[in-house]
Every structure is written in C-alpha cells, then in structure tokens.
Design a protein that fits this description.
The complex is a heterodimer of chains A (about 550) and B (about 325).
Chain A (H helix, E strand, L loop, with lengths): L1 E3 L13 E3 L10 H11 L2 H10 L9 H25 L6 H8 L2 H17 L1 H24 L2 H9 L3 H52 L2 H14 L5 H11 L9 H6 L1 H4 L20 H29 L2 H9 L14 H9 L2 H35 L18 H20 L8 H22 L1 H5 L6 E2 L2 E2 H22 L11 H27 L15
Helix pairs in contact in A: 1-13, 3-13, 3-18, 3-20, 4-5, 4-18, 5-16, 5-18, 5-21, 6-7, 6-8, 6-9, 6-15, 6-16, 6-17, 8-13, 8-15, 8-16, 8-17, 9-15, 10-14, 15-16, 16-17, 18-20
Chain B lengths: L4 H16 L3 E6 L6 H14 L3 E4 L7 E8 L2 E6 L2 E5 L2 H13 L2 E7 H8 L3 H27 L5 E4 L8 H8 L3 E3 L4 E4 L2 E6 L15 H12 L9 E4 L10 E3 L9 E2 L2 E2 L1 E3 L3 H10 L3 E3 L8 E5 L2 E5 L10 E7 L4 E7 L1
Parallel strand pairs in B: 1-2, 2-7, 3-6, 7-8, 10-11, 11-16, 16-18
Antiparallel strand pairs in B: 1-19, 3-4, 4-5, 9-10, 12-15, 13-14, 17-18, 19-20
The chains are: A mainly alpha (about 550), B alpha/beta (about 325).
Chain lengths: ~550, ~325
Amino acid sequence: MATPTETAAAATEAPMLFTRKATGLVREGRTRDALFNNVMWSSVALTFALYWLLIGAYSGGSAIIGILIATTLGLPGAFLYAMLTQVMPRSGGDYVFNSRILHPSIGFAANFSYCLWVIASSGIYTTFIASYGFGAFARTMAGFTGATGWLSFGEWFSTHWGLFITGMAMLLFSTALFVIGGTRLFFRVQVWCFALYILGAVLLPVAIGLLQSRAGFIHNFNTYAAHLGTPHASSALVASAAKAGFTPAHFSLDTSIRTASVFWFIFGFIYPSTYFAGEIRMGKRTHMKSMPGAVLLAAVVLLAMTPTFTHVASYTFNGRLAVAEPAAYGFAAGAPAYPEIMGIASGSPALSVLMILGFSAGLFIWLPETMMMASRSMFAWSFDRLVPERLSWVEPRTRSPLYALAIIFLLITASTAIYSFTTWFTTLTVLLGISFTMVFTAIAGIVLPYRQRALVAASPYARRVAGIPLFTLVGAIALIGFVTMIVILMLDQGSGVSLAHNPGKLALTAIIYAIGFAIYFASKAIRARQGIDLELAYHELPPE
Amino acid sequence: MSLGLFGRRERAREGQRSAGASTTRLYYASDIHGTEGLWRKFLNAAATYRAGVLVMGGDVAGKVVVPLLERTEGYELELFGRRELLAGEEQLREAERRVRANGMYPHRMSAAEAVRVAELPEEQREDWFAQVMLETFERWLALADERLQGSEVRCFLMPGNDDPPGIDAAVERARRVEACDERIVEFGGHEMVSLGYSNLTPFHSPRELAEDELYRRVERLADQLREPARAIFNLHVPPYDSRLDTAAELDEHLSVVTIGSEPKLIPVGSTAVRELIERYQPLLSLHGHVHESPGATRIGRTLCINPGSAYHTGRIAGCLINLSDEHARHQFVTG
C-alpha cells in the first residue's frame, strides 16, 4: 500500500516523497555491523605489535607521526571506496570497480594480485599466533610461576617447525569452521573473538598503561625475567643493546615519515565491507561511516595505545629489546610483543593471559575472514566466467565454497611455510602489491565521471566541486595518498620492498600482475572457443 | 571487441536470424523497478548482444513517486535530501530525467494536491500510485514499439510480485511487447511457461500466493507442455534453497538480522518452484525477485538463473543464454 514518507502533519507542508510498501525498501545493513567488520579485519593490534617489534629499523621515529601520516594518506581512499561501493554494489569490491571502469583485464589482474598478497600475508598471522600467542602464553606461565617446564614448551613454538605446525593447526581449525559449521558458525565465533580481542588487545593494555608506572614495570620485568632464569634483566638488556650498538636516538622527521610504512598495514585490510556489498544493500551513510569511520577508529585506537604503552615501556626500552640478544635478558625464544610486555607490567598472570588471548583471537579470526574475502572475489570472477564455475560451488549443507576454500587453504599453507622456514618476506612486504591495487581503484575513481556519465549522474555523488566532478576530485586525492605511500614503502629500507634493498620483491609484485593479465587473456581465449565473449560481461548497454 | 554504432544493425539482423535457427539467443533481465534508463537498455540489448528474444521477468514498477511541487517561482524538488527550485521547462525536464534514472516517478503537482494524496486512505493512495506508474509504463511500451519496429526480435514481459494490476492490461494492448504471464508462449522451438507471482513475503506486495496455489498455477501450464525437456520456466520467484534466493533475514521491524558483523542470510525462494523444477526438469529456468542473490545453478538437468538486480545504479543486470535443442549456455552481462 502507498504511504507518504513524510506525512503532511501540518497542512502547510506538502510531502516530498511517496513510497509504496514494496519488497526491498528496508533491507539496509547497519553501520555498526559494517564498521565492526572493517575494524575487525584491519589488524590494529597486529600493526601496533609490528611497530614495536620493528622499532630497531625506525629508531628516532615517532609512532604518533607515523599513525597520522598513514591515516592522512589512507583516509581519502576510504572515502573513494565508500563512494564506489555505493554506486557499484556488487560482491567483489575493487574487481568490480576496476573491471567495469578501466578494463576487465586490469580489474582482474589488480584483484588477483590483491587476493594473492592478502593470502600471502596469512603466514604472518599463523606464525605470530605460534610465537606471540602460544609461545608468549607458555613464557608468561613460566615468568609468573617460575616453572621451567613451561619455558621449554614455549620455546618450541618459536622453532621453524613449531611455527609451521602451530600455524597449520590454526589454518585447519579456521577451515574446519566452514567445513563443519559453515558461515553461521564462523560468524558466531567471530563475535566472541571480537569481544576477547577488544578487551584483551586494546582496552586492558590501555588501562594498564594508564595505571602502571615505568618504575613499576621495570620492577615487574626484572622479577619476571628472574623466573625465566636471568636476574637483573633490565641491566642485562641495556648491556646487550649497547653491545649491539644501540644508542638512544634523537627525534628524526625522516624516520617518522618512514614509520608510516608500518602503520599502512591497517589500510591494506580496512575495506572488507566493500566485498559483501552485493549481498546486502547499504545506504550512502552506511558506507561513508563504515569505511572512513573504520580508518578513523583504527587511528584513534592506535593513538590511544601508543602513549599509554610508552608510559610504561619507553621508546628506548623497546629499541633495546629490538636490537639486544634476547637470551641475554632471559627471553631466549625472542623479544616479547606488546601483549606480553603489558602483561608483565600488570603483574597479574590472569590479566597477562587475557591480553595474550585477546591478541591471539584477533590474529586467529583474521584467517577465516580472509578466506571469506578471497572466496568472494573468486565468486565474482566465476560469475563473469573468468574462472571455472566450480570455484563458486557452495556445499549445500554448510553453504561453504569448498573448492575455493581448498585453493585458499593451499596458498595459506605455502605462505605459512615461507614465513616459518625462510626470511624471503618481511612482515611489510605484502603492502606493495596491495597498494598497487588501490592505485588502480583511485584511477578508476578519477575517470568514472567521464567513462560512465549516467552512472555518476544518477548517484548521490553527481555534484562538482570547483567544476571538477566529485568522484574525480576524491579519486585524485586518494591517488596522491596511495602513490605517496608507495613511494614511502619503496624508500623505506625496513619495508621489505625498498628499491635499493629489495628489487627482487618489486619484480615479484610486477610478475604477479603479469600472471593476472595472462590468466585473463587465456580465459578470454578459452571462453571465445565456447562461444562466450567475456567482454560482453563488462560492456555498458547504450540507453538511447 | 567492437560494439560500435556501425556494426549494430547488421548484428541485430544476425540475432534475429539466430532466433529462428537451431540456436536461440535469449536475453533475460528482471526487477528494473521503474528505472527508465534500464528499460531503454533492455530494449537495446537485442541489437547489442545479438539476441533474438528478450524476456523481462517482472517487477517493472517503481516504488517511489517524487512530487515536483508547483511554486510561484517554478517547481520544488527534493532528491536525496537536497531541495532545489527548478525554474523553466529545461531544468524541469532534466530533473525529471534524474528522478527517472533513479527508478522513481516524477510527478508534477500542486502542494495542495500532494497534501490531498497524502491524506487519502491507503487503498485510494495505492490506486493513485498505480495511475502515476501506468502513465510511465504506457510510454515505455510506446518506446518499445518504436525501438523494435521492423525487427524480428520478440520481446516478452510479465509483471512481478511488486507490480500493480494495471500492468497486464497495458501489456495486452502493446504491439511489440508480448504478454506471457500465466500462459505458454513459443519461440525457436522452445515453449516458455511464465508466472509473475511470488510466494508470500513480509512486505505483502500485490502479487503473492501461498506455495500450494503457486504450485497449482504452474502445474496447470506445465502439464500442457509438449516437450518439457526443451521448455523454459520463467518464474519470478527463484527455487527455495538454490543460492539464487539468498537474502538477509528480516526481523519484525523489517530490519536486517545480523550474526556478528554480517547479515544473516537465509533462503527465501519458493518450495513450490523448486518442486516444479525437480518434477518437470525443463531445459532452463529464469528467475528474479531476490536482487542480492545473482547466480546460476543446476537442479537436476535444469539450468536455473537469477541475474539479480542493482537497478538503482543505472546498470541492468541480465543474462544471455544460448539455447540449443539439448543445451543452455549462459553468460551474465551487466549493461
């Protein structure tokens, strides 16, 4: 039945819209759900941990400045992704944007590269769960109880096989979530992981940072290390760091800018709601709040965690941890990550375990989230018939895409092996490949108003600013942000993709794009023999 | 690939020939919900994709009327929360075009008339809405007559669950658009059974049926098929639990139910349609209705397709199907 959306309560105000009560008018996703998803996948805690573990390469840098630079460079891109998702709401995210706006081969190659690099980064998560989850837990038990059995147990998790076997166990567990319980079980587990993650990896460390003093922390650190077998550990740490050449560094703007490399880690993984846009319709404000909102929220969390953490464990302390020989101060398996440090600061084994659990929960749930994201891209490729239909086959009982999951499983296994047994990739290496896809998306945003006028004219983003189409303007600013970040990554010696030190990784990034293009054109030729013209899938019909 | 202007006419002829040969190329789209640009694209699909048969699978009516209120200085419009004053016929037409492009109906009226409509009882307001919608729909049919004139393309249209009753009569009167709802039509050696009704929804839309009644209506037609194995089902609602019918679960306030951070997705298709496909095993089964669940699947030997819909984006989600005696090969196209 027809109802006026704005009833004329007062006879003087005429309604400006009449709507029928037809299907679909109210099926809108909620902002908080999309925001939750984006924040959950953005790996804020891992990024924070990475910075302090890698601080040796960023001596003299300011985390706060790094966070602000990364946020400033990434925020316009978040607005662009939100706008594009609004006008092209189909599962597949950047694949859909770039294939429709630029060229199908570019869309596929860029998304193929993005998926591959995201999957490649899975090895970071699986191996971190081993060393900073299980390993840290065991060391915490030893550190608080003095039971040396825990220590030898924990040290195993930092061995090559310990990393690989634990990582594979986590991967099997993630896959089992889908195979046994399907997406519904995954979503339920995700909620619990999120709660544990926020409590343990964010709220507790901030609270302890506010309540504990630096002197109190050093006292607890020495007691903890004594239980691990090393008395006067803080002095031993200073001595070992000095022996390794550590000197407290003065503030350096150059290093602070390079620090953005680490904090860029969150931006590679902050738009997942764009990948389920086809499954649920969302309003303009939902996208606008959930993508830029996630960037800002992540930045706020990092900005809250940094000063509270350094209030307890200073830059200098962490700098020493990064360069000193871990065995010299009692941490033979490796330097502690921030959850263990804040656990030591708390002086409480219970809080300590809670923080390590929260941190691990965030790492663990990222795996099935990534599997879902990649399988959605495969769905989009399969829908356009770029890849065999089997990739989008869903097992009827659990509604899980088993063939797609099997491929992703194999790729994550390879990634886990690489991060367990080799030093081919640093933790930041994956960022370059991911960022190049964003560059293509920014270019797509710039040219959209010129290539698909009708689409933009019918959208809420049809207006111009100083004569420039809004999409073009936002796309150009996003492009500046992404390109600037790529330049920083390529100039940063610690990024793992620096021009000077890692030319091989740059070549690998290009090769993966080339493989993407090759797959597209091979698929096009195969489909042509079957009577299917792939490019028809992307061609816009003339309205006139 | 070239899809330029110069090749179009020749390709259209080829397509028309293909409809009568052993292979028929069919273009199917659905759920355009009053979006005029999409209707125009639908009509142009025949030439662009070299399709000999066009099938519009229902839900052609829009859901929103946007009044253009007469003021002393011109007309007042509110679109996407922005109010603007339109002075002169050119601005007015441009604004009407924008409204139509978004799947809404522009309607020039006085403020007093808008208030009067707002105060009408629900049933009368629905009639008024249907009248506004039909004015546009009649123009669409006239456009189809113009665009398809002189071609051998056959264009079928059936209403969907969201379409008001007046649609049927308008299609019956059309010259180049053929009605197919609740009847069997034939092309290229294939019989097509159509039904625009859906199963019951939480929205109480104009054309809904209980599952058993829906089954009976299709069964009555399907029993008359000469060769079910070569037939096409054109049923607006997709089969239950087929992946073509996955939608977010709604609560009592029609808001999306979520688990964790994601919408809880459930099958909302018709059990009757599923049983009918399983029983008759046609060559192809075409569906719409669930916009967010595009895809292709097989139920037994039957290729089932839902191209989905993103009508508010200005792009028409459709599917090209090459039909031969034994096979149906599909390709999704978003035009």
